[in-house]
Design a protein that fits this description.
This protein is mainly alpha-helical. It has a single domain, classed as Amino acid/polyamine transporter I. It contains 25 helices and two strands. It has a two-stranded antiparallel sheet. Helix 15 runs antiparallel to helix 16 and helix 22 packs antiparallel against helix 23.
């Protein structure tokens, strides 16, 4: 095995040709329906971004950061903005499904592409299992509001079941039968929508987005009448470090725009529409998140917001329970739309990996009638639905966020080494080149000066292994920052991709070390599969 074979790359022309041919099992199966336009892509981005974050994890972030959590949404949006611009450049140059996986195949080579594809599987699958279980909780609350309820053994799991639930559950061979039926059924429904076609999925996503935006705007307007400005002081009660404690919870809310790029082959004009859809959805969601954070922290003191349903909670505190119920309805719709977009995105990444020979051929089979990756969609439904039926998972924001940030870093880095395009006849988005030769080192020097105390604390080895082992990711970040500053100075690197890489890497350092370890184990499993199957079955390998 040569090192060159691990970094073999697919050319842009080969990737686009494969997509046009609709390859699966070596025969022409036809392409996918090209029905998505800017408004549809924007709606899909909003559908994925406005979900569990605004209805759940924003409470945890507000508890740590106070009103200053609004700054964290700005920081995260800017970070995602850098990445979104890099995604937009790739999407316009490589208008095929696969997202960061495909982009990495073009720039870094096969091994990096497999690693990022495997990381995206973690992001989509685990994230959707957690969202499905979260949806079940909201749905059960809705049933309770109209005087209905499911037996506890049909809406629970073994880990959280009470002795009363276990006693009431039917027993099969002496084992209590306890399942989370709502979580399983919503995955089944969403998988069906994703299976029968992008047209149906588009209509459903557009409807759900319109509904939940109306509800959120209503909540913002009504909530501002109940704001007590005294609750906004102090603005950062736990300092800037307290604001950053919510980074994974906040970033989890933004990862959805990545899923938009997986639908490239179903866009009417991907070169023009994909970049607009990603950027528009990011801007709209950021404004809504900032306004919601001000409403939440203004209606009740920040230290009361460590709850699972912060939006509903604050209106209960001001004696408006009917609005709490309206929010619960919107939460069910919001999490359904997140499930739908992610269930659409996951099979299309597998489809791209299968086309390249890294996964079995069946994963790239396109349904002759519905024009969707049918087998991959079914497998996605099984892998999400079965665990959601039995497991007790909270929203694994840290683990999902670390995989997404890793993908963003590779996309930003890929833009730096993407071959320059000759003059194109197709009008498309192009990332503006800003010479980072002096700007990048200058920004680093300013930040070091402003945050010298915090940096020295992290670089200090005081406290022994138990303390500084948690700063290992930060030490790596410092080395990467020095390297990128040097290359910016000597090679005049483009500013936006460099800032995207550094900001994403820094956010990764704010995620606990244990999640880095779990993520590393996941990558090790993926590499084992790659060397046992994908390396030898790769189309580039067979051509060689």
């Amino acid at each position: 095995m040569s090192s060159n074979s691990l970094f073999r790359k697919k050319s842009l022309t080969a990737i686009i040709k494969d997509a046009k041919d609709g390859l699966s099992d070596g025969h022409e199966t036809g392409g996918m329906n090209k029905v998505l336009k800017v408004k549809d892509l924007t709606a899909m981005g909003i559908a994925a971004v406005i979900g569990a974050g605004i209805f759940s994890t924003i409470g945890e972030a507000s508890f740590h950061g106070g009103p200053g959590v609004s700054l964290l949404f700005v920081i995260t949006a800017v970070t995602c903005g850098f990445s979104a611009l890099c995604y937009a450049e790739f999407a316009s140059r490589v208008p095929v499904s696969g997202s960061a996986y495909t982009y990495s195949y073009v720039t870094f080579g096969e091994l990096a592409a497999w690693v990022i594809g495997w990381a995206l599987i973690l992001e989509y699958a685990i994230g959707n299992i957690a969202v499905a279980i979260s949806w079940s909780g909201y749905f059960n609350n809705l049933l309770g509001g109209i005087g209905l309820s499911l037996p506890d053994w049909l809406a629970s799991n073994y880990d959280s079941a009470t002795p009363e639930t276990i006693a009431a559950a039917p027993h099969i061979a002496g084992i209590p039968f306890i399942v989370n039926l709502p979580a399983f059924l919503i995955v089944l429904l969403v998988t069906y929508l994703a299976y029968v076609g992008i047209q149906e999925s588009k209509r459903s996503a557009n409807f759900m987005v319109a509904l939940k935006i109306l509800v959120i705007l209503f909540v913002i307007v009504v909530g501002f009448f109940y704001v007590n400005k005294a609750n906004w002081h102090p603005f950062m009660p736990n300092g800037f470090s307290g604001v950053l404690k919510g980074v994974s919870a906040v970033f989890f809310a933004y990862i959805g725009f990545d899923a938009v790029s997986t639908t490239a082959e179903e866009c009417a004009n991907p070169q023009r529409d994909l970049p607009k859809g990603m950027i528009y959805s990011l801007i709209i969601c950021t404004v809504l998140y900032i306004l919601i954070s001000f409403v939440l922290t203004g209606m009740v003191p920040y230290y009361n917001l460590k709850v699972n349903d912060p939006l509903a909670y604050v209106f209960t505190q001001v004696n408006l329970p009917w609005i709490s119920y309206l929010i619960s309805v919107s939460a069910v719709v919001a999490t359904t739309s997140v499930l739908l977009v992610f269930q659409i995105g996951q099979p299309r990444i597998w489809m791209s990996m299968s086309r390249d020979g890294l996964l079995p051929k069946r994963f790239s089979k396109i349904h002759p009638r519905f024009k969707t990756p049918s087998f991959a969609t079914i497998i996605t439904g099984i892998l999400v639905g079965i665990p959601a039926l039995f497991l007790n998972l909270t929203i694994v924001t840290d683990l999902t966020s670390i995989g997404t940030l890793f993908a963003f870093i590779l996309v930003c880095g890929g833009v730096l080494i993407l071959p320059r395009e000759e003059k194109s006849t197709v009008k498309r988005f192009q990332l503006p080149y800003i010479n980072g030769q002096f700007i990048v080192p200058g920004i680093i020097v300013v930040l070091v000066f402003l945050f010298s105390k915090e940096i020295m604390t992290k670089l200090s080895f005081a406290g022994g292994w138990e303390v500084w082992k948690h700063n290992i990711p930060f030490y790596i970040f410092v080395l990467v920052t020095i390297a990128l500053s040097y290359f910016s100075l000597t090679r005049k690197l483009s500013l936006i991709p460099v800032l995207g890489m550094l900001s994403c890497f820094y956010l990764m350092t704010e995620i606990a070390l244990k999640n880095w370890i779990v993520f590393s184990v996941w990558l090790a499993v993926g590499l084992t599969i790659y060397f046992l199957y994908s390396y030898t079955n790769s189309k580039l390998a067979t051509k060689a």
